[in-house]
Amino acid sequence: MADKSSLTGNPELDLLRTNKESGFNYRERRQGDWKENYTLYRDKVTVNRLTQRQSVNVPLMKQTVKTLLKDVDDMPVLFFENLDNDKQKEAFQNEYWKWTASEEVNNLELKDIIDKKQVFLFGRTFDQMQIADGRILIDIQDPEDILIDRYTDPANIDTARFLIHTHIFRPLSALENNLDYDKEAIARLKMFYATEAGLIKAADNLNMLSIKNEKMADMGLRDVEAPVLGESYVELSMHFVMHKDPDDTEEQYYLWVECDDMEILMKKRLEEVIGTTQDNFWRNHLPYNSWADDIERQDFWSDGVGDVVRTSNKVLNAWLSQLVENRTLRNFGMHYYDSSLEGFSPQTFEAVPWGWYGVPGNPNEVLKKVDIPDLSESLDEMQFVISMVEKATGATPTQQGVTTERQITLGEVQLALGEAKERIKGMSKFYTVAWKQRGLKFLKLIEAAPDKLDAVKIYKKGRSSDKVYGREISSKDWMTQSGYSVRVWSQDEKETHDVNAIQRINAVKSLMPDNPKLNEVYQMKLLEFSGLTPDQIGEIMDFERRKLEAYGGMMPPVVQSGQVPGRVPAPTPQPQPMGQTA
Length: 582
What we know:
Blueprint: H1 11-41, H2 60-71, E1 77-82, H3 87-102, H4 108-122, E2 125-132, E3 135-141, E4 146-148, E5 162-171, H5 183-193, H6 196-218, E6 233-243, E7 252-259, E8 263-269, H7 270-274, E9 288-291, H8 305-332, E10 335-337, H9 363-366, E11 367-369, H10 378-393, H11 410-425, H12 428-448, E12 456-461, E13 468-473, E14 484-489, H13 491-511, H14 516-529, H15 534-550
Antiparallel strand pairs: 1-14, 2-3, 2-9, 4-5, 5-6, 6-7, 7-8, 10-11, 12-13
Helix pairs in contact: 1-8, 2-8, 8-10, 13-14
């Protein structure tokens, strides 16, 4: 990054430049590590004349990341509880979240995988939320596009004094379409890009955009438009800065949009951009979330699994490169020969099966094979390095579906596998907190700008039939005075919680077997644990209630093994006295 320390005469632009330089210097030490982690994952190596002479790569980085990724829990479950106890509005709110999560532009099931993969490779990931085109958009951002205050609490991104989203490339001609941008600043930019220096800058921006798009495609993000030939591209940066203007009563987040470190296109309070809530939420919260699985107090840019694997992967690559070259050279069968002998030129010999080749003198004295030692013993050392990485990351051979040669019992295998999985699933405590923040900011976006959201149509199957019914819902269908709280749990936590709850209820049920309300709760828990959909659970519970009503509110007789549910068992025949007939 170029030096931005020179003053421009514009205090606000100088502030933005200073923040950008500070944020870049704070993150710069991680750039080289991230690049190596990513290229190793993508099976790319840089050849050199000393240690990596052959273009070979041991896929240790990909093997480790893919192994751990398969054992990390699925996307957490979010549920919004209405604080006014309006179950109908609560249902609409949760349906709107499901619609948002599954919408094609969001597709959070897949983006959750990308989110976790970025944590493995880079140690930190970010997501951004905004309202655009009448819907809420949630996107995973590249950590290389984010600059942040070095004194940010790693556990809470909303403590940042500034956050800068860089590398936002737009055609110069498209800036005029945004009514919030300064028209005079755009005019000055057009004049600059008409100069020779401006053309050079536009070419640099176009090259950076091409590189960014290529990497985003490699990471699995949705397609981005290719640069249009003949267009001058500019780089925009969004600066979210804690600031206080003279007419403000307190510090709050402001949003500056700056172009190519030269012009400020927009300055507004973040609350003015997004909207106002009852608690003025957007005065001190960012529309971004971030999490890491190796969080520490001293450094926001924490390590990831890729940092554990990187050095070992490079060592293995160097050794494998040497093995490949060693085997190739040994296969060549290179020889020394006495070049002082007249008329003797072994290069003219053509090797043929069962060939005989004459040499002037003793062949042992005229020819000598080039000695190239065998390096295959290094395979054991390579296996030791791989084993060390597996222990450090928890990506054990058993998790990879590889059997071990050592004779061990099934119980030992299950114990080791269980411990390894528990170690990986411990990661859920970090991302469930991030998902709770996503849920909260999702609610606050709706509260701040309900008029910007389009109505959506949802479809549900009827409880008593297979017919599908559609209904259009909008923000007025779920907005209430007190709002909502967010419940979030990982799939593993939910299953563990459900099992424990069923065991506790079962213990209580043994003391009150005829309590209809307790039985209803018990049945509900069992149905939820079985993985049935809410509609299926509703149909089953409706049938149980009707059955209960048929018995006049009393519990039907206890069903014994082999009896038909809902029928009164036949009386058991009584034994007859000896000597009497029935």
